[in-house]
Each structure stands twice: as structure tokens, then as C-alpha cells.
Design brief:
Length: 106
């Protein structure tokens, strides 16, 4: 597949455009009954972070981000991050792109 080129305001050629992704219809999220418990869970985590201080909070968030990045339900977003990195750095191999994509969650 060849990528097109976007035009700039002065009529010149700009950056190569990226291939378009298909959007899924009927996007689903968590069931409605889970919204309130999720909200209070996030608020509770925020309160703990405010009390704990910056360094412990940063360590915890890096750990949580590293775990979250590799979870199965985050696979689509993670794969998109890998695709973006591979597009920006075409000379990088798959393992390096995956390592940096996971690092972005930390």
C-alpha cells in the first residue's frame, strides 16, 4: 500500500500521510452499572496520591502504567502505539518498537 502526500498551505508537498484506520461502529465501553464504582475507585486513587507525595506516587504510577500497557484489554491501543513508533522509526525492529511503546505507559 502506498501512502499519499499531504499538501501544505503554500501548495508544496508536506509529510507523507498515514493510512486511514477503519472505525468500528457501535463502540462499547464498560456496562453502565460499573461507571459509579470505577469513578469512586479513580477518585480514591487520586486522594491516596495526594497524601503519599510525589516520589512514591510516581513509582506507583510507573508500575501501574507498565502493567496496564501489557494487559489484554489494552492490546488494541498498545498495538496502535507500536504501529505509530514503527511508522516514525522505520529502521527499528519490532522488539525495540514494542519496548518503547510499553515504556510510553510508564
Amino acid at each position: 500500500m502506498t501512502a499519499g502526500v499531504t499538501a501544505t498551505a503554500d501548495g508544496g508537498a508536506g509529510e507523507p500521510s498515514r493510512p486511514k484506520r477503519k472505525q468500528k461502529k457501535g463502540r462499547k465501553g464498560p456496562p453502565e452499572w460499573t461507571h459509579l464504582p470505577i469513578y469512586y475507585g479513580v477518585r480514591g486513587m487520586g486522594a491516596v496520591m495526594q497524601v503519599a507525595g510525589i516520589e512514591p506516587t510516581m513509582r506507583a504510577m510507573r508500575g501501574i502504567g507498565g502493567v496496564f500497557g501489557g494487559l489484554p484489554f489494552n492490546r488494541k491501543r498498545f498495538d496502535r502505539a507500536v504501529d505509530n513508533i514503527r511508522w516514525c522509526f522505520p529502521d527499528w525492529d519490532e522488539a525495540r518498537a514494542r519496548r518503547y511503546a510499553l515504556e510510553a505507559y510508564r
